[in-house]
Amino acid sequence: MPLNWDDLKILLAVARGGSLSRAAIMLEVDQSTISRRLSGMEVALDTVLFKRSKTGLQASDAGERLLPLAEAVEQAVDVFVEGASDERPGGPSGLVRIFGNAWILNRLSERVLPNFLAQYPNVDVRLLTQAPTSPVRSDATVSLWFEAPPKHGDTALRLGDVPFALYALKGRDPDALDWVSFYDEDAPDRAPVRYWNRHRGDADKLRVTVTDAGLILASVRSGAGKGLLPMCLGEQDTTLQAIDGPKSQLTRSLHLHVHPDTLKVRRVEAVVATLREQFEQVFLP
User: Fold this and answer.
1) 184-202 confidence digits (pLDDT tens)
2) Assuming Cys at both sites, which of 19, 213, 226, 244 could form a disulfide with 168, CB separation 3.0 to 4.6 Å?
3) Rounded to an integer, what distance in angstroms lies between the CA atom of residue 202 and that of residue 173?
4) What DSSP string runs through 138-171?
C-alpha cells in the first residue's frame, strides 16, 4: 500500500492524542477509519508504530524514529500551502489552536476574534481550555499561561503584565467575608495562593478554591466571599468593589507558549502579532 500525506496525518494525530478516539476527533473522521489506516500503515511498513500502555497509545521505537520525519513533511506541506496563500485573497489559511484559561479565552472571544476573523477570512480558530497533553511541535498551536513553564520544546514569549486586585460584593463588609481563590492541584504554589498566604488574617478562612478567574468572579458576585481578580474583570463589573481601591495589588506576567518551528507559519504569525497588538485592550482595566 503506497503511503500518502493523509496517512502521515493519522500517525501524527495518534501520537499527539494518545488514542484512536482522540485522533479521530482531531481529524474529524470516524475512529474506524483511524484504526484501518493505521493498521494499513503498519502492514505497509512491516512494523508496529504504537504500543498500548495504561495511559493510552505510545509510539514504539520505530514510531519514535518516524515521527520527526512525519513532522518534517507536515512543515513542508504547511510551507507549500502558505506559499499558495500569498496569491490568494485573505492571506494565510488553516486552523490555529489556542489553549488557555477559560476567562482568557472569553476575553479573546469578545474583544479580539471578530476583527481577527474579518481580517483573516481563511484562518479558523479553535479555543481549548485544557493544556496540551502531548507534544504539538509543527502543529499550529499557541498557549497562554501565567507561571506555567513551557513544555514539549515550546518557547515562552512575554505578552505583558496583568494587574490583579481584591474584590468583594458592594454593600458587604469585606472583613466578614471568607476568601475565594484560584488553586491548581497540579501546581499549588501559584501566585494567587502565595498572595492569600501573605495577606490573610488570623481568622480568615479559604472556603472556595477554583481553577479559573471566571469562577472567582461568579463566587464574589454571589457574595460567597472576597477574591483576587484580574482588574479587567473586576473593574467592569458594577456590582463589585475593589477593597483597597482601584489599584493593582498583584501583577502576573502572561506568556505565549509556542514551538519555534510554528512561529514560521503565517497563520501563527498572524495570531501572535494580533495578541501583542491587542494585549492592552484585552487584559488591562
Assistant:
1) 887 778 888 888 888 888 8
2) 226
3) 17
4) TSSEEEEESSPPP-TT-EEEEEEEEEEEEEEETT
Burial class of 123 by CB neighbour count within 10 A (0 to 12, 13 to 18, 19+): buried
Same domain, 113 and 195: no
For helices 5-17 and 61-85, the axis angle rounded to 10 degrees is 120
Q: What number of H helices and E strands is found in the chain?
A: 10, 11
> How many angstroms separate the CA atoms of 211 and 182, rounded?
5
- CATH of residue 57's domain is 1.10.10.10
Residue range of the domain that includes 42 = 5-85
Give the pLDDT confidence of 199-227 residue by residue, as tens digits: 888 888 999 999 999 999 999 999 999 99
Residue 127 is part of a domain; what is its CATH number?
3.40.190.10
Find where cell 476583527 sits. 115
Is the alpha carbon torsion for 162, 165, 170, 176 positive or negative?
positive
Give the chain's radius of gyration (CA, Å): 22
- What pTM did the predictor assign? 0.77
Q: Which residue has the cell 485522533?
A: 23
Q: How far apart, in Å, do the first and last CA atoms of the chain sit?
A: 59
With vertex at residue 157, the alpha carbon angle to CA 140 and CA 25, rounded to the nearest 5 degrees, is: 25
Give how far the C-alpha of residue 258 lies from the chain's centroid of Cα atoms, to the nearest Å: 10
Beta bridge partners of 230: 164
Q: What's the rounded Cα separation, in Å, for the pair 43 and 109? A: 45
Task: Render pLDDT for 233-281 as a digit per residue (tens, 0 to 9).
Answer: 999 999 999 998 878 889 999 999 998 878 878 899 999 999 999 999 9
Q: Quote the cell numbers at residue 228.
A: 483576587
